[in-house]
Design brief:
The chain is α+β, with helices and mostly antiparallel strands and 193 residues long. Strands 3-2-5-6 form a 4-stranded antiparallel sheet, with no helix packed on it. A 4-stranded antiparallel sheet has the order 11-10-13-14, with no helix packed on it. It has a 3-stranded mixed sheet with strand order 4-1-7, with no helix packed on it. A hairpin with a 2-residue loop joins strand 10 and strand 11. The longest helix is centred in the N-terminal third of the chain and has 26 residues. The mean pLDDT is 84.
Length: 193
């Protein structure tokens, strides 16, 4: 019986080694990759009219829509006439399941007023102070320009400072003598009583 016990023990030892080998082999396999998450829409908008949004060489008008996977990171360039370009790095959260909206506001440099007036010695006031050609005005503000000269009719112009248009005024003053002409009332027939 001792030989039966020894034989049984050898079989069990071999089975144990085989089971250990199977368990080790099963646990050392790499885990399957996690299921891939669907892409989410990333919408890039801006405050500037006519803006273009570029990503990896592809450009589209703002608001621009790009598909990205959760966890992705990429850069966009937002451009518009009259504004400084803006580069923005966008990181899509790893747990994102819905769309992502990113606002990229653009800054426009202030504008200088160019004034061309006739007569050349006319006084130009901007916001009630003498015009300084080096002065600049922020986009979106209103500039009040008054042009006057002795013997001429003064002119006032209200200008909005826009990013996409030059800030300029062109005024030719009219002499007062031409502006003030006597008005003659037309003769009317009086009804007879």
């Amino acid at each position: 019986n001792e030989s039966d016990n020894t034989a049984t023990k050898m079989v069990l030892d071999r089975l144990g080694i085989a089971l250990i080998a199977i368990v080790v082999r099963e646990t050392s396999r790499p885990a399957p990759p996690p299921p891939r998450k669907p892409p989410v829409a990333v919408v890039v908008s801006t405050n500037a009219a006519g803006a273009i949004v570029g990503r990896a060489g592809l450009e589209q008008p703002a608001p621009a829509r790009f598909d990205a996977l959760p966890g992705d990171a990429f850069e966009v360039v937002v451009k518009a006439p009259g504004y400084h370009d803006e580069v923005r790095r966008i990181v899509v959260p790893r747990d994102a399941t819905t769309g992502l909206t990113v606002d990229v506001p653009l800054d426009a440099p202030p504008k200088q007023l160019s004034a061309r007036v006739t007569p050349g010695d006319a006084e130009v006031l901007v916001n009630d102070v003498p015009w300084n050609p080096a002065a600049s005005f922020p986009i979106g503000t209103i500039v009040m320009v008054q042009v006057s000269a002795p013997g001429y009719v003064a002119v006032r112009r209200e200008l909005e400072v826009k990013a996409t248009e030059p800030l300029a005024v062109d005024v030719e003053l009219r002499p007062e003598a031409e502006a003030v002409k006597p008005v003659v009332a037309p003769a009317t027939d009086r009804p007879k009583v």
